[in-house]
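User: My instructor asked us to take a sequence, write out its structure as tokens, and then describe one feature of it. I'm not sure where to start. Here is the sequence I was given:
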Amino acid sequence: MKYKRILLKLSGEALMGDRQYGIDPIRLAEYADDIKTIHEQGVEIAIVIGGGNIFRGVAGASNGMDRVQGDYMGMLATIINGMALQGALEDKGMLTRLQTALKIEAIAEPYIKRRAVRHLEKGRIVIFGAGTGNPYFTTDTAAVLRGVEIDADVILKGTRVDGIYTSDPEKDASATKFERISFEDVLAKGLNVMDTTAFTLSQENELPIVVFDMNKPGNLLKICQGENIGTLVNK
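Assistant: Let's start with the prediction itself. The structure tokens for your sequence are:
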């Protein structure tokens, strides 16, 4: 396997499937099946998931809600998604741990880096909830931060599109895909891969990012095996 330890970043919206909001159990089960294929190959898996299918802090702030309050509500949404994913993974026979940046002892462990790494070494899948635990930071930033902390080999950002394009392929039919692109070129071309804080943190720590279509079964395994799926961002 090309990657021994990964940080998988999923958006909350990805869990909606064809719904307008909430969690689609069919999509959740599909993701669990894909994750199981790489888990059985010995890949150590950590996961960060967004909360946009339930609540998005920035959207709340634009409607007059206090931004800090909205961001904390978003963090709680990521914990709900984390619990849903945890249940789906355990239904498939995998051992998991949910660690959160906000203390909710009844349902999750507090985030402790050494404990997270130990879980990974023992073959448990670790889900990180509540982002960084701070307002004004996205779950993309949380994903890169946790990836750096646990010494992941790569950030795998699962999206609805199959990589990074010159422009939005859903709006521009002439958009062309990058197979590989450097951190510098992403910034120079103004491409929207992650928010700036997350992307800069990844660049500074030379932690590569692969943007790929998570909704196509088998992609996750192919990436871990070294196939050119999606777009690789590195130095």
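For the description part of your assignment, you could build on this observation: The longest helix spans residues 67-91. Try explaining in your own words what that tells you about the chain.
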